[in-house]
Specification:
Blueprint (H helix, E strand, L loop, with lengths): L2 H5 L2 E5 L2 E6 L4 E2 L2 E2 L1 H15 L4 E9 L6 E12 L3 E10 L2 E11 L24 E2 L8 H4 E5 L16 E8 L7 H7 L7 H5 L7 E8 L8 E6 L3 E2 L2 E10 L4 E10 L6
Antiparallel strand pairs: 1-2, 2-6, 3-4, 5-8, 5-12, 6-7, 7-8, 9-10, 10-11, 11-13, 12-16, 13-15, 14-15, 15-16
Helix pairs in contact: 2-4
Length: 264
């Protein structure tokens, strides 16, 4: 079993109840990555939902999760001819850490209809991009290969941009095909785009995160673009897009996070 599949595995304890192990293999500064935790919750939801197409997953991060055993509590909110809606909570040590909502649709006859009023991001050739290195205490990048366009990678060497935007390529380091759960991970695996303009900040913890998956990719690498346009009252937003190499939209996201700039 590949590492990601092993680390998002869940075992059913009873109706609406699963157990799981949150691992340290997908962490940022020692904290489990939010996309990884959402993929873990989504894995339990998918086992319960009767429909699995074009999922929309939203999570509220109530308190910090940590590596170790966890319980996932599920509740079906509603079920219709077109949608299944499920609520999931991640509980550790008797404390609810994350509350998540999933909407899953049936395959529909509108799949061929497509209108994009925005183009895929322009990104430098893969060989010209700058890889985020594997780093101690940032285990996510030991497993996920992220390569940034040079035009927005200056923050890694202290050269900042006027725009809070990151663009680049992403895939697993270990060979593994893309699926719904890996897309949830990847759309939260780029560094926060605020780093492009502000450098290494002290803290950008997620408050709320929503992912809408549109298509499963058919290429080896995905393209990503992530932007922050507003920082106000200690809160910022991150709007993200993932595309495949054929110009097909894979997923979009919006994340709300706290902003704490490092002391100078």
């Amino acid at each position: 079993m590949r590492l990601f599949d092993e680390d998002i595995s869940v075992a059913q304890l009873g109706p609406g109840m699963f157990k799981a192990s949150v691992t340290a293999n997908w962490s940022i500064n020692g904290n489990p990555n939010g996309g990884y935790l959402m993929a873990l919750l989504a894995n339990a939801m998918i086992r319960t939902a009767g429909k699995t197409a074009t999922p929309i997953i939203t999570a509220n991060f109530l308190t910090r999760s940590e590596p170790g055993m966890a319980e996932i509590h599920l509740e079906r909110i509603s079920q219709s001819a077109q949608f299944d809606r499920i609520q999931a909570s991640l509980v550790q040590g008797g404390t609810e850490r994350i509350r998540s909502f999933g909407t899953f649709a049936k395959e529909n006859s509108y799949a061929a209809e497509r209108r994009y009023e925005k183009s895929e991001p322009e990104i430098a050739r893969l060989e010209d991009c700058i890889a985020i290195p594997e780093m101690p205490n940032y285990s996510l990048f030991n497993a996920v290969d992220v390569r940034l366009d040079p035009s927005c990678a200056g923050w890694m060497t202290g050269s900042l941009s006027q725009k809070s935007e990151l663009r680049g390529w992403i895939r697993f380091r270990e060979e593994r095909p893309f699926d719904t759960l890996s897309i949830i991970l990847f759309i939260d695996s780029f560094p926060p785009p605020i780093l492009a303009s502000q450098g290494i900040v002290a803290w950008v913890p997620s408050i709320e995160f929503s992912v809408s998956i549109r298509n499963l990719p058919k290429t080896e690498w995905l393209k990503g673009v992530f932007r922050t346009c507003f920082v106000d009252n200690g809160i910022l937003e991150e709007d993200g897009e993932l595309w495949d190499g054929n110009g097909q939209l894979v997923a979009i996201s919006r994340q709300i996070a706290q902003f704490r700039k490092a002391a100078t």
